Amino acid sequence: MYAFTFERPASLADAVKLAGAGGKPLAGGQTLLASMKLRLSAPEQLVDLGGIAELSGVRKDGDQLVIGAMTRHAQVARSADVKSAFPALAWLAAHIGDRQVRAMGTIGGSLANNDPAACYPSAVLATGATVVTNKREIAADDFFQGLFTTALEDGELITAVRFPVPRQAAYEKLIQRASHFPLVGVFVAKYDSGVRVAVTGAGNGVFRHKGLEDALSKSFTPQAAAGVKIDASDLNSDLHGSAAYRANLIGVLTQRAVTKAMG
């Protein structure tokens, strides 16, 4: 490691002040600390958000679930409110990485980092959730902007995420065994207004699939999903799987997700 200062503010106001002055926010540290060890990131000051009580916790607010940015994956997975109102989200949180990652990783850190194969972005995008920051509220469709890129401005901190609870939902993924990230993951959420489908791991970032959404809004069945042709032209291709393989996975995992959501 190299020399840097370490701050642990006790309030959001103090954290915002430090981040606004150039401090690097530290949430769960699952990506940032590894990047620092590899000299890919060299912040002069770390601002640890772990001591800010107001950024952690889960609460039900009408037909929405509000989850604090510093809520750990394990907390989301075992939350009685999440299990009752939104079991698909509890399942997703319970299957992120391994036990150590779930004990330290946070929802806010995952969203701010926006790894193209992370699980949480698919849930946020598929539900049309709202990302709440110290400055504003950002719709999911506007938040994710590509590879490790979001709508967050310098010094802006995520404080919470508001999920509108769907009528039916499910998440399915095929894990890349070495990294535990999804090779492809698909989150399906059904509302009175229609169905939203978000895909992670397959492209340059999380994205919605209009063809699947249209088909499933007309008929929420695995057969409807099976009838949608998945275009592989903009999908990733690497040593773990070709673009055509990922395209096939999107279709298969969507069918499984719909079957699971139907109970």
Helices, strands, pairings?
Layout: E1 5-7, H1 12-20, E2 24-26, H2 32-37, E3 45-48, E4 58-61, E5 64-68, H3 73-78, H4 80-85, H5 87-94, H6 99-104, H7 107-113, H8 120-127, E6 130-133, E7 137-139, H9 140-143, E8 158-164, E9 168-175, E10 182-191, E11 194-200, E12 207-208, H10 210-218, H11 222-226, H12 243-261
Parallel strand pairs: 1-3, 2-3
Antiparallel strand pairs: 4-5, 5-8, 6-7, 6-8, 9-10, 10-11, 11-12
- Distance separating the two termini: 49 Å
Global geometry:
globular
String of helices and strands: EHEHEEEHHHHHHEEHEEEEEHHH
Query: How many helical elements?
Result: 12
Rg for CA atoms: 18 Å
Mean pLDDT: 96
Write down the CATH class of the largest domain: Alpha Beta
Point out poorly predicted stretches: none
Structural class: alpha+beta
**If strands are numbered along the chain, what order do they take across the biggest sheet?**
4-5-8-6-7
The CATH architecture of the largest domain is 2-Layer Sandwich
> Can you summarize the main beta sheet?
5 strands, antiparallel
Estimate the helix proportion, in percent. Answer: 25-40%
Please count the beta strands (DSSP E, at least 2 residues each): 12
Instruction: Tally the structural domains.
Output: 2
CATH topology of the largest domain: Uridine Diphospho-n-acetylenolpyruvylglucosamine Reductase, domain 3
> Strand-residue fraction?
15-25%
Question: Quick summary of this structure?
Answer:
The chain is α+β, with helices and mostly antiparallel strands and 263 residues long.
